[in-house]
Amino acid sequence: MKKILSLALAVLLIASTMLAFSACKKEENKLVMATNAAFPPYEFKDGDNFAGIDVEIAQAIAKKLGMELEIVDVDFGAVLTGVAEGKYDMGMAGITVTDTRKQTMDFSETYATGIQVIIVNDGSTITSLDDLFNFNDDGDPVSLKNTGIRIGVQENTTGDIYSSDDITNWGFNNLNEDGSVNGEDRVKRFKTGAEAVAALKNDQVDCVIIDNEPAKSFVAANTGIHILEGDNEYAIEDYAICVKKGNSELLTKINQALAELKADGTIATIVAKYIKAN
What we know:
globular; D-Maltodextrin-Binding Protein, domain 2; single chain; five-stranded mixed beta sheet
């Protein structure tokens, strides 16, 4: 009886070990991508499914690596902190490389270019960058035309980072030497770009600064607002994939996949699917 019991326990132990090993292998073959699916056309929900430029590029990368892609939808700030802490394998959410972000995570080669633009209400007194800043002879901003201006942004995005900087760096705040705001913080932060646009329409902010492609989607979906045209881009930036700092093995694989997807035209095809040439 004892021998039978011992044998049964041994079989259970082996089975448990095999199941654990199988589960471990399954997890190792999974590529977990964190995103904020409220940034069309880069990432958004199409019914119950994820869609967008970043989503399809991530799917193509996972296929190249022979891995299963899992997408996790979180707030934009949680994308960055989650990747930095190793909670997610990579982040794709129209993420721009900055010196601050490079301190806590590593970045892939660039796969797309974004332009930060300004959305205003129809009839707004803001018609160009000249209505926002006073400039010196070198074309650098030195002060605000309206010190009471309210800027709407999606929190933690580069629109937020740029806007929150000092006026001399094209921001809208007066900053102390330590970077803290001296006086009123003129930047109003929202969880999503859609919430920032809703605040604009309700006159809670005077303009919204956000990436050009999502901006076009928001303008198409809302009457009474428009993007400043002409030479009024607020910033031009490159998008990249972020991974946990020091994860050179994954980063090398991602960069190799990106290089192949660029070379065979896959990325260009994906971008053209969502962004039509004018």
